[in-house]
Structures are given as structure tokens and as C-alpha cells.
Design brief:
The protein is α+β, with helices and mostly antiparallel strands. It contains 1 helix and 3 strands; from the N terminus they run E-E-E-H. A hairpin with a 2-residue loop joins strand 1 and strand 2.
Length: 66
């Protein structure tokens, strides 16, 4: 999996976070300083929470800079 870039707002470190919600498990990337977050992605079926498709999408979305 790709390395997470620093937060685009404050420059802080980012972590991959998993949360259990009403409709399943979601993953997103969040800044450890300012709590900026990426879009949440749903973990489907038996996909690995921190290394599966949803986690890869969250990391790609976070690292995308224009």
C-alpha cells in the first residue's frame, strides 16, 4: 500500500482509521492534529479492513493532490 502523505491543511501526520457504523465498517484517513478526514469507504464482506480495497481507495483519495 502507498505511504500516506501529510495533511494538506496543517502538515500533520495521517492515519488510517476504521469505524463501525450502523451499516457496516468504514475506513478513512484522518489527520492526527486537525482531524481533517478523507471520504469514508465501506469495507465489504470479508475484505481486510486495513489492507483491502476500501483502505487502498481511502489512501489513494487522501494522497491525491491537484
Amino acid at each position: 500500500m502507498d505511504e500516506l502523505k501529510n495533511c494538506p491543511f496543517c502538515g500533520g501526520d495521517a492515519d488510517l482509521i476504521a469505524t463501525d457504523g450502523r451499516y457496516g465498517t468504514f475506513v478513512c484517513v484522518a489527520c492526527t492534529i486537525c482531524d481533517a478526514q478523507s471520504k469514508r469507504f465501506t469495507v465489504h464482506n470479508y475484505d481486510d479492513v486495513f489492507a483491502g480495497k476500501a483502505a487502498q481507495k481511502a489512501v489513494h483519495f487522501w494522497n491525491k493532490r491537484e
